[in-house]
Amino acid sequence: MNLRTRLMQQLRGWGPVGLLYILLCTFTPSSQTVLPETFLDRAIPFNPAGVWIYLSFFIMVPLTYLVVDTPTLRWLTRALQASGVVAGTIFVLWPTTLHYPTIVDNGISAQFLVWMQKWDSRCNCLPSLHGALTALCAWALAKTKNFWVTLAGFVWGLAILYTVIQIRQHVAVDLSAGMLLGLLSGIGAQLLQKRSLPEAHVASPVLRTSDSKVAQGLK
């Protein structure tokens, strides 16, 4: 599959998710549910320096689209679309937020995090799309059956998920919900892909028969 086709698949899969999230950032609900912190959140201290690994998510997604094979590419596109639709529905029906820490540090990482949060929605926490899409990309990279690519995807994904909590963009509850959403979307996309394969196999003999008849007619 050429680069242009891969970019189009990425636009079809990731584009609607981003557009939906941007539109929902303009939505201000009348009430929001505050998500609780767990022992896992308390075990990971807040550190704005994690923002850079957090942002590497925006490299991981397009890079995954460049690495995986054609069937995985289509699977990933469907899974991302499903995650976006489900998450967007939940964001509207059940807006959630969390207790964001006050940032007093004047360092570059801290100030960049402050700037980033100004543009981010604080009522679209559960499920975490960062968690869902990171899990799907790590899964897609594992489908390459290449040990080093799989390992890199796992370690990179784990680092991103850690920093999601470290910079308090999400807590363990909504991050876990996002990862679960990614898992279910991936399973659904996989089932849909397997269901479409028999139809292609049924159609192919018909085409071959038709082609042979045409060839005989030409003789």
TrEMBL record:
The segment(s) forming the Inositolphosphotransferase Aur1/Ipt1 domain are 49-185
Q: Name one Pfam family in it.
A: PAP2_3
Indicate yes or no for the key word Acetylation. no
The record's InterPro entries line, in alphabetical order, gives:
Aur1/Ipt1
Transmembrane regions listed in the UniProt entry: 52-68, 75-94, 147-165, 172-192
Name of this chain's protein = Inositol phosphorylceramide synthase
Q: Provide the Gene Ontology terms for cellular component.
A: membrane
Write the record's keywords in alphabetical order, separated by commas.
Answer: Membrane, Transmembrane, Transmembrane helix
